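does this look right to u?? D-ribose version
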Amino acid sequence: MSKEVIALGSDHGGFYLKSIISKYLENLGYIVKDFGTYDDKSVDYPDYAYKVAASISRGEIERGVIICGTGIGISIAANKFPGVRAALCWDSYTAKMSRLHNNANLLALGGRIIGIELAKDILNTWLNTEFEGGRHLRRVNKIDELAAKFWLEYLEANK
Ligand code: RB5
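got this back:
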């Protein structure tokens, strides 16, 4: 079985947790594609959300983990991209539900909010929980369908 690639991205607020998660994932046998940032100098989280989310939107990578100080900014930014479902999780339950019901393809974490062991627990749950499909697939599909409908109408009305 080929190894799964997991994308990583963070700003300075998530840099430390990203470095821990990167090693942890490699020890579990995953291939890590780290989109930065690569040190703790202050940067803007939308730039790193963009790198990871655009890669998911283009179909280059299936899943990833994004981290900023709270996880809020980077998840808001990532969710602007088609096909991206970034879920900000703070315990195993939210991680489990984000996979079962939302088929989340990005896990967002708050590097200044949660501890290392909790982050590993959340990550394990998230990586190992399958999407339930069924009625949840219909709802998940509506996210991009309705956004596309909005943009088509908006662009038509503003040309
Ligand atoms: C950076 O100071 C901080 O605002 C950022 O990491 C994040 O928490 C934003 O949502």
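The chain has a mean pLDDT of 97. idk if thats expected tbh
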